[in-house]
Amino acid sequence: MTISDRPLRIAHVGPVATTIPPPMSGSVETMTWLLTNGLVAAGHDVTLFATAESVTRAKLHATFAKGYRDDGTLWPWELCEMLNLAAAVERAAAFDIIQYEAVYYPISLAFTRLSPTPIVQTLHHSPDVAEVALWALYPEAPLIAISNGQADLLRGLNVVATVLHAIETDRFEFSPQSSDYLLFLGRFTPGKGVVQAIEIARRTGMKLMLAGAENDYYRQHVAPLVDNRQILYAGEVDHETKVRLYGGARTLLYPVQAGEPFGLVLAESMACGTPVAALDRGAVREVVDDGVTGWVFDSVDAMVDGLGRVMALDRRTVRDRAVQKFGVGRMVDGYVAAYRRILNSVPVPHTR
Amino acid sequence: MTISDRPLRIAHVGPVATTIPPPMSGSVETMTWLLTNGLVAAGHDVTLFATAESVTRAKLHATFAKGYRDDGTLWPWELCEMLNLAAAVERAAAFDIIQYEAVYYPISLAFTRLSPTPIVQTLHHSPDVAEVALWALYPEAPLIAISNGQADLLRGLNVVATVLHAIETDRFEFSPQSSDYLLFLGRFTPGKGVVQAIEIARRTGMKLMLAGAENDYYRQHVAPLVDNRQILYAGEVDHETKVRLYGGARTLLYPVQAGEPFGLVLAESMACGTPVAALDRGAVREVVDDGVTGWVFDSVDAMVDGLGRVMALDRRTVRDRAVQKFGVGRMVDGYVAAYRRILNSVPVPHTR
Prior knowledge:
Two copies of one chain form a homodimer.
Chain A: E1 9-13, H1 27-41, E2 45-49, E3 59-61, H2 77-90, E4 97-100, H3 109-112, E5 119-122, H4 129-135, E6 142-145, H5 148-153, E7 158-162, E8 181-185, H6 194-204, E9 207-211, H7 216-222, E10 231-233, H8 239-248, E11 249-254, H9 264-271, E12 276-279, H10 284-287, E13 294-297, H11 300-311, H12 315-325, H13 328-344
Parallel strand pairs in A: 1-2, 1-4, 2-3, 4-5, 5-6, 6-7, 8-9, 8-11, 9-10, 11-12, 12-13
Helix pairs in contact in A: 1-13, 6-11, 9-12
């Protein structure tokens, strides 16, 4: 068998902040979990480098009993993440490829020229120009982008593929009938646009449910606007509650201010059949099929005016498109194709 | 020639926050500078991994034009430090030993098993039990302690030597005659004991000069006590001013609250002939020769009572003992002996 068709030996180095999957929320942990299990399901030989309490269909290599978010004595967190990646690189000869996606910045670069096996890093944020200039010290290091918008920011680096995130569409059940509220779900930061979401609710006279972990920004800027009649706050929610909130919403509001490289809540909402109203930033147009799974707007004013069009979208169609677009199988195929591309471009594997 | 007597090929990986030596203060940068130049003077083949504007007698390998403290676009700093160390490890075959001392926690561990050349890290802080437990994932990684007090904290790890820091005794000129004030010099933190120093000055009726960079702690807790008559503040001082302040002081007050692994200001003060009054914490008893270069006390009360004994010490003797104890040659000999010990304990060098 050639590298083009045989199963691959993959080291997947996940974050060690907590378990895989995460106890509550955690997009990187969730993506790690889905990709690892998906790669196993596709017949590959996968070793997950994660904390000992993680649950996975792959082999598990645990450097740490608990994560540094669960065990406060483990610090600094950067050292923990480095040692987890080092554990995989030390065993590099046992793998065809090392997949990294734990730390938001590419610590994998430091190991690129020390590993006999290629290390590919998936990036989870939108880097600025200075970050990309720094990373260009290792122009050969393979990167996987999570949207074309993000890939555009990575110009000059070795982006081997763009693979959109997946979600577990089975666990985001379709809700044919919604209730009467709008939904904002996510971290409370200026960039996520929660204040704009409240403005939109007030101007359209609709109820708005907020969900996310309480933080300083929430206490200072959001809590004073929560009146428990029109603007409601559900706290940080577990998966079950999250799905119920998505399913009951007329529309997910996504008036994002800072460009995001993906937007998981968009995909999750769609999977429950709930169309989205999103501002045109970052990867929004790649995630949202304009006029099918939601509408993309240029401004808050336009979103207020167009909200009726969003609510009129067919929930069944929204769900079907989400299932087709964000399935785990599609993501896994994208990753495996990227791995094979990397391995084919490395004519003779390095030897130590 | 065997490894026991031939000159060594040494990679010295310094911090990349700023230049080597540092423009103002910076103990790690200063130690890096002294050790590198001292190793060159002793006939070794040294390559310093530092920023391009650094000045050294060694060969210079610069991954970065400027440091991340001087160029705000370089971040996160952890990645910069990792890439600087990686640059040395990538070239490991050209060296007998890699000396690391840039980051306060041992990021060198992550490279320990990937480098064909031993990496030895000097630690600059006093680790707690949890840190040492984490580092014990790499029990073989060689460490150099800067005092026996610090080495005690590192139990279970591979401490190959304790080497006290050196200072440039020529640049801390002897002052035979002092003025009439006490001196506190250092960072303004609760651990350094600046508030206690002020208490001691007030209770003994002596003037106290404070020197150090203004920070939040200074503004909140120290500035209200500065009356510009008895308690004076000189700001952050350059080398020349620092030497003048040391030389004019009757005594350096070092009522340190948290255990420090060394205490550079003690050595610097002594080199200028100024005896020290220190609380018995951390490495104080290793740095101060009790009754010769200063007196060590158990409490602030005891220090108030005993200050006369400190001021009565002979300044010439203080200076002479400091020159003998903190010379660069002595430090360099200690490092080279440690390197040879490491190399002799590695029977056959790893090959890639």
